[in-house]
Amino acid sequence: MSNMKDMTGEQIRKKYLRDGMLPTIFCNGCGHGLSIDYVLWAIEELELDIDKVSFASGIGCSSRIPGYMNADGLHTTHGRALAFATGLKAALPENDVIVFTGDGDCTGIGGNHFIHAARRNIDMTVILLNNYIYGMTGGQLAPTAPKNSISTTSPYGNIEHAFNISELAVALGAAYVARWPVSYPYQPIKSIKEGIQKKGFSLIELMSPCPTAFGRRNKLGKIDALWDWYDNNAILVEDYDRIMNFGSEEEKAGIQGKYKIGVFQNLEKPGFIAEYAKLVNRVTAADDAKFGGDL
User: Fold this and answer.
1) Which of 20, 127, 139, 269 has the greatest CB tally within 10 Å of its CB?
2) What is the total count of domains within the chain?
3) CATH number of the domain that 53 lies in?
4) Could you tell me the residue range of the domain that residue 138 belongs to?
5) Residue 84: half-sphere exposure toward Cβ, Cα within 13 Å
6) Maximum CA extent, the chain
7) What is the DSSP string of 134-184?
8) Exposure pattern of 168-193 as b/e (b: 16+ CB <10 Å)?
9) CB–CB of 57/84 below 8 Å?
């Protein structure tokens, strides 16, 4: 494996990004740029052939990311990235398929595709950037938005219950599920590497501050205060479970409203593409036996 110390961030970016696409469109304080670095470091650490990596995305701030990659990719319609990625993996099963998507794109507009891609255990790695809002299309309420948060479509406060994306993926049987704030550099890189290597559906949910569409409307302060809010409201899933099972009432009250981070699920189970290949071979062999290979 490569050593991360062998190359600088600038060298990594020059190796994998398109010069003509830079700088990015991201606002000051947006966490999305870090997610690009994390994926590039994971690719470098795994020594992947970038010509065998295919990206897909839908619509939104995060969905612009594949355009910066000096690699093949599909920039698709709103909410449909996982459907396109499924076809991409079926057509090129030897490729590593990586999807960039947002919380609104993936679980709002594309919720049904998310449910069934995870349920089927389609072989892809989904980098879901959760910023609690539709950042690019007007600041509308996203299905992950916290209770009472403000958006253009909830100017008096959100009254809806939020999706817990990672726990939903766990319930659907995804092979690998992890959630990290983008302010944690090493854990996301490790999870992305594990997700790429996993056979089946991998979800890495990255909590990415949006100072423009979410932070400003919800009066979360300057950029550094917004990032601190994400750090101060995170708790490792192991610590959360320990406190809820064995902690005092005071400890339990102290973690209410915090979001869990860490690796939620890591299973060894057959991926859809491998199972489909077995089915094709079995049916073909049966036909050959029945018809003598004349078909």
Assistant:
1) 127
2) 1
3) 3.40.50.970
4) 4-291
5) 21
6) 74
7) ETTTT-EEPTTPPTT--BTTBTT---SPPP-HHHHHHHTT-SEEEEEETT-
8) bbbebbbbbbbbbbbbbeebbbbbbb
9) no
Dump pLDDT digits (tens) for 159-218. Answer: 999 999 999 999 999 999 999 999 998 999 999 999 999 999 999 999 999 999 999 999
Strand runs labelled E in the chain: 53-57, 72-75, 96-102, 124-130, 133-134, 140-141, 176-181, 201-207, 234-236, 259-266
The answer to whether 139 and 102 are in contact (CB under 8 A) is no
5 pLDDT higher than 70: no
Q: What integer pLDDT is reported at residue 22 of this predicted model?
A: 84
- Taking the C-alpha atoms of residue 107 and residue 151, their distance in angstroms, rounded to an integer, is 17
Q: Which two tokens stand for residue 177?
A: 């599920």
Q: How far is CA 269 from CA 98, 198, 287, in A?
A: 19, 9, 28
